[in-house]
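Appendix B, Record 12. Input sequence as logged:
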Amino acid sequence: MNKPHTMTHPRDPLHGITLETIVATLVARHGWAELGKRVPIRCFRHHPTIASSLTFLRKTPWARQRIERMFVAELPR
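Logged structural output:
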């Protein structure tokens, strides 16, 4: 999934990956409860949905950066 992106853009591992894909991947790997523990924001803890999370993350740079860093840290090297 991410291998073509890292090969074509080695300095930007998130190139071509949408925020929705990032959130959906992290939810599939860890679940909402674990995401809520790692990044304590309401949209992960109370009635979480992809849509509410995307709305919040797009408006809140610090939270988006934490989610993106978490995703990049888990990419295969």
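The chain has five helices and no strands.
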